Amino acid sequence: MTDQETEFHAKLRALVGQPTGGTGKPSVAPDPVNQPMIRHWAHALDDMNPVYLDPEFAASSRFGGIVSPPVMLQTWVMPSPKLEGIGDRGGAPIEIEANPTAFLDEAGFTSTVAVNSEFEIERYPRLGDVISGMAVYEDVSDEKKTALGTGYFLTWVTTYTDQNGEVLGRQRFRVLRFRPER
Fold it and tell me: Residues near 143 by Cβ (< 8 Å), separated by ≥ 6?
């Protein structure tokens, strides 16, 4: 292995345990958990669970009131998208201030495909909760050859908490960063 390859692999391994956004700060929901957004989600996904929509039913449930669908955790912390210049940001809907994986682009691993997403739910979000999410790289694979090209699987875990720091859940997300086959 060349010195350049050794340095590249060291940078890859150094991602593990580091925040994904480069800032080290959690993403905070722009709005508290609220009924209109829950209603939009329920109707868009045809998930008409009465604990999401019916205050009377929800009050008599084990939750004691309206709750948010737990897989909405990611949705609550999404910032408002900035669409101007989105192509210049590689399709990212927000400004990327510090990209800890920029060295992958420089090495030719310019394409990304989402592979999977898994949720672990501790408790359902309640109306008024202000949710934060902190994403940290969990794993980087060895180099893999795939039908799309050669690359690396990057996995990060986002931990979602409420305004009191109580963990609501975790989302494990995996992508393949690869060199496209020509």
Answer: 150, 151, 152
Query: What is the Cα–Cα distance from 25 to 173, expressed in whole angstroms?
Result: 18
Residue for token digits 């975790």? 170
Report yes or no on whether pTM surpasses 0.90.
no
Which H or E element spans position 10? helix 3-14
Minimum mean pLDDT range among 20-34, 40-54, 139-153, 162-176: 20-34
Contact 102, 3 (CB under 8 A): no
Residue range 78-82: mean pLDDT, rounded:
72
Residues of the chain with CATH 3.10.129.10: 3-30+70-178
| Both structure tokens of 135 | 């994403």
* pLDDT score of 91 more than 90: no
3-30+70-178 belongs to CATH 3.10.129.10 = yes
